[in-house]
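As noted in the main text, all predictions were made from sequence alone. Below is one such record, for MFS transporter.
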Amino acid sequence: MSVLLRRWSILGRLGELPRPMRLVVLGQLAFNTGFYLVLPFFALHLTRDLGLGGALVGLLLGLRTFSQQGLFFLGGALADRCGTRPVALTGFVVRIAGFLLLALAEGPVLLVAGTVATGVAAALFSPAVEAELARRAGALERTHGPTRSEAFAMFGVAGEVGVVVGPVLGSLLLTVDFAVTALAAAGVFAVVLVAFARGMPREPAAHAGEPVLAGWGEVLRNRAFLAFAAAYSSWLLSYNQLYLALPVELARAGSAGLLGALFVLSAVIVVVGQVPLAEVVRRRLGPRALPVGFAVLALSFLATAVLVGVGAPGPVPAVVFVVTLTLGQMMVVPVAQDAVGRLAGERRLGAHFGVLASAGGLAALGGSALLGALLDAGGPPALPWAVTAALPLTSALVMGVLVRRVPALHADTLAAGRPS
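Prediction:
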């Protein structure tokens, strides 16, 4: 029994990772704890405490998303040129400053500055630490340690723990004051800053001294990776419907109060199931997890459309959507993050991860605008769900072609030994 528990325990698997990789995985838990201390309550603070109108609130939330996802390509390229450690540490400092500004802000100037700073910070540290994990996990896999997809599964589980812990702590602190919540989040990142400063080795950057444009040029010449990034971008668009389409559906069904519980449900599914599912996917599907996983994402929207169309009671469509979407996420993300390193030839991982995230941000921006227009149009409530299903379904078809035609994604590459 103890062996079985250790096999599936995130803590047990963490013990198999070298110290820098453990730091990155546990750092992800801290990142999400600090971030979700604030994010779920930010709009409420802006409207209830500061009395801002909906247009300004929407602008601030849009600025945060754009300054984060839109600039990932820059943070990734800087990580290649300057190294993970300095870029990540700079990101932590910028996020601490952003939370401090939000704690002090009572007017639009400091609010905009704090909001943009929190987004830019993630654009610096996220692609840097993901590239670092990919690089070290790829080397560890070649010595018969945990595979890169297993390392990213642990990374995802740790992040989901933060998604659960952060809002719980934030809801408790919000009873005191939003400024206290923002200061607490800054404190979390101060701890992360110290831990990374002490624990992340000082190593020369893989492309030190080379122009940043050289990294982007290499990415843009990698046609297989660009096709992969375009197909993968529908994942972030799909995930963002937890924030856009899901609340609308719950409100339509008279179950708006269940939104928080469904976020917790999604996080718990990942925490409990990600590591064992990653093992099953590795053994049974290999790279076919990509087309199959995107097909599951499409199914989450199609099933919701059908349930809404036939008048399924209360929150049933929303619950089915969250559970199915989460399963698709768990199948796709670890395998895709491993595939980035293979498609990049283990070079310029920061630039590749950055461009991958920015592509997802652009897809989420454009696709969510289209879906928002459909939701506002007042047509059949099942229509937006059915239309959105076409996007991950298209990705499933493209991924199926790529898996067959791109050598880095062939089954004998990804499934040999203990692969992603």
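Residues 50 and 106 are 7 Å apart (CA to CA). Residues 1-8, 411-420 have pLDDT under 50 and may be disordered. These features were considered when defining construct boundaries for the mutagenesis experiments described in Section 2.9.
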